[in-house]
Design goal:
Stationary-phase Survival Protein Sure Homolog, Chain: A, 6 helices, homodimer, globular, alpha/beta, nine-stranded mixed sheet
Amino acid sequence: MTRILVTNDDGHLSPGIHALADALRPLGDVVIVAPQTEASAVGHALTLRRPLRVEQFGEGVYAVDGTPTDCVNIAIDQILTHKPDLIVSGINKGFNIGDDVTYSGTVAGALEGALLGFQAIAVSQQFTREEWDFTAAASFAAQLAEALLKQPMPGRTFLNVNVPMGKIKGIRSTVQARRNHITKVARRLDPRQRPYFWIEEASDDWDLDEASDHHAVNQGYISVTPLQPDLTDHAAIDLVKALI
Amino acid sequence: MTRILVTNDDGHLSPGIHALADALRPLGDVVIVAPQTEASAVGHALTLRRPLRVEQFGEGVYAVDGTPTDCVNIAIDQILTHKPDLIVSGINKGFNIGDDVTYSGTVAGALEGALLGFQAIAVSQQFTREEWDFTAAASFAAQLAEALLKQPMPGRTFLNVNVPMGKIKGIRSTVQARRNHITKVARRLDPRQRPYFWIEEASDDWDLDEASDHHAVNQGYISVTPLQPDLTDHAAIDLVKALI
């Protein structure tokens, strides 16, 4: 029996997670363990300073008052009766591409799975306020999950999937794009004239790289990027030796 | 005039951040922008769903009710009068080594600096409940900062420094160690007999790698690891092509 754990960062009420779980059910036993409320941009956060609660919502659906990383840990150690064969995180409303993957709770759910030694996929879908449709992303996630179960990735490699809106031209194996980050923080005044600050959506100044996830989705292709948790810049080891 | 931004994840009241700022002051103008309260293990989280407040605590010390990533963004866009030449995050109470760097708020502060195009260092110090002393870590951070200002790292490379307790045998340029993660979650009952869960400290099952940060600090060496934000597993690109 194939067992699949599904999590996300938009919360257990998000339609994206149910579209994903429904698409994966033909492959095996699917259990959802997801945050109680939206936990976007929480990165790879782990809740260590307070205890966590788990609430069940019907058959095979659990909500945790924590992050996607918390959900994966609690699922594996406390909720699931057997270890999963695969962890799938998503479907996120909005891309998780390029340098932004390190902020993403969706990607962190899959990263945590990979660190714990499981096959894992993060799935994100382009999103605008007017329009979103998880059909293509859910169907591709199921197809990729089936292939991955037959031919697992080595070591701690996991897959980051991004699906554009509209007609899909094909699928590409990509690298993480580079974005030239520019911070924008908005300053406003409250009714008592005290300032408060909003972190704004970052502006888009992407490096042009035809092999990248950003380029693939912009061209109408589904992007699949193999990611892994080692941040070492091996090329800089000697530069550091010259410094110290 | 050299300008240095100092942040951390233990909060602006932590003695580690003041030891660091004091050691860096001979190099130039130092401003502290740090979380109001402890924000350990928050990873690379960005606060997007609520506004943030900034409070000043004396000359050049600011507290933000958010994460280290929030602090860096608000500092650069709203608090500092000039762009910094260097961002230093720490000194964290406890190592940030191996795969655990992706959970670390301390490392995330430096990662955010690197993504924004600045030179950046994360500094962590071994810590036990009985004993901690930031002297060696602060003094090494200042020495490394001075060297880095003269000879900056290329691209988005930043430095992750870990300092062991006791007598320092030397300094090593290292790679990120691999840890075989095993989840432990403790289940307890509240006075109303309802369960709640604590995520426990992960157990230590490190891969033996003599080039790693974990090995260096265990041998009594200061570890300096060059990190960068690209998670792509380039070796797996062709494996993904075979799947899709």
